[in-house]
Amino acid sequence: MKYPLIWFLKAYRLFISPLYGQVCRYHPSCSAYALEAVTVHGSIRGSWLAVRRLARCHPWAAGGYDPVPTRTTPTRGV
């Protein structure tokens, strides 16, 4: 499921995103954030991060730099 999402996001960035121009309040843009989130965290967690980011993206948002959280690996017993 991860690779069809990545393909869809790349197609969106190539064909649809240029029609909107530079209107995103955040850096990286929402589509770049979603692509990185799905690539780093997988389809389920990456999609959840992308949906949360889209919910924060509205005209009254302050915007700014909002990177994708780093992937943490669970530690096994010491």
Automatic annotation (TrEMBL):
Listed name of the protein: Putative membrane protein insertion efficiency factor
Compartment(s) where it occurs, according to its Swiss-Prot or TrEMBL record: Cell membrane
Recorded superkingdom: Bacteria
Protein's membrane topology: Peripheral membrane protein
Entry keyword annotation includes Cell membrane: yes
Annotated function: Could be involved in insertion of integral membrane proteins into the membrane.
Main location: membrane
The entry's keywords: Cell membrane, Membrane
GO CC entries: plasma membrane
Cross-referenced InterPro entries: Membr_insert_effic_factor_YidD
Signal peptide, first to last residue: none
Record-stated family: Belongs to the UPF0161 family.
